Amino acid sequence: MTLHILSDQKKLGIEAGKKAAELIKKAIKGKGNATIILATGSSQFETLKHLTDEQDIEWNKVTMFHLDEYIGLPPSHNASFRKYLTERFLNKIPSLQSVNLINGETDPQIELRRLNDLINRFPVDVALIGIGENGHIAFNDPPADFETPLPYIIANLDQACRQQQVNELWFDSVSEVPMQAISMSVKQIMLSEYIICSVPGARKARAVKDCLEQTVSNMHPASILQNHPNCLLFLDKDSASLLKGGKHA
User: Fold this and answer.
1) Domains in the chain: how many in total?
2) 3-state secondary structure of 124
3) For residue 55, what are the domain limits?
4) Would 223 disulfide with which of 110, 162, 203, 216, CB 3.0-4.6 Å?
5) Residue 241 lies in a domain
6) Residues in the chain with pLDDT < 70?
7) What is the pLDDT of residue 249?
């Protein structure tokens, strides 16, 4: 794992976006195409903004998969991740080679089979992810399943995860937050050649500390990123505020 600490969220997003663009172009140059995973949430605002501002990515050679989506939430809802990605990414770039969004409104088991069949055909070059306040990656809340070989799973959302969605103003109350989501599994995320993890804000400081300074444990799901050879973790001074010494690798 390589750690980058920036002064604020905007600079974090710029640097993470630059690195994502560099790695996407590297994959296209090397093999003629690239497959990427995109996350959502407030941690990705600046990263996606910079990525969509890049002028020389051959987007028609890029296949995109979606990290997670609530079950039962329509794309018209403010918290829909399909809505988020459409507005902040898909509407701002030329047509991609392929777009694979998660449909949380259909039969979840049928959707899982569709997604798992699709992603097994595409080795992932770059995954853009974040870390939740409870240490989750995607919707793999603690204790996360580190062993399932399935690329996508049905995840039960814990109270801390659901409260975070309210804190970030996606929902008005915890009772409105769905209890389940379709989520990329931990093992599938770890199969990505490169992982760019963007984690801004003081609310994430405890999760960052636990996941970097504790031993790898499914009680701190993002701690598994310590084992990835090409994980680049981008923090701002607030999310890094509890780290010992300020330098980790």
Assistant:
1) 1
2) coil
3) 2-236
4) 216
5) no
6) 245-249
7) 35
**Is the model's pTM score more than 0.85?**
yes
Looking at residue 245, its pLDDT comes to 67
pLDDT at res. 246: 54
| SS3 (DSSP) at 11 | helix
Contact assessment for residue 60 and residue 97, using Cβ atoms and an 8 Å cutoff: yes
142 φ/ψ angles, rounded to the nearest 5 degrees? -70, 140
* Residue 205: per-residue pLDDT: 97
Looking at residue 247, its pLDDT comes to 46
Task: Determine how many CB atoms are found less than 10 A away from the CB of residue 229.
Answer: 9
3-state DSSP assignment of residue 19: helix
Selection from 101, 134, 133, 106 nearest residue 201 by Cα: 133
The pLDDT value recorded for residue 150 is 98
Q: Give the dihedral sign, CA 151/153/157/162.
A: positive
Q: Is residue 186 included in any domain, yes or no?
A: yes
CATH number at residue 62: 3.40.50.1360
Distance CA(193)–CA(152), nearest Å, equals: 18
Helix/strand/coil percent split, the chain, to 5:
40, 20, 40
How far apart CA 203 and CA 196 sit, in angstroms, is: 19
Helix or strand or coil: residue 57?
Answer: coil
Query: Residues for the chain: how many in total?
Result: 249
What was the pLDDT predicted at 42?
86
**Cα separations in angstroms, 207 against 17, 83, 101, 212:** 22, 27, 28, 8
In a domain, 22, yes or no: yes
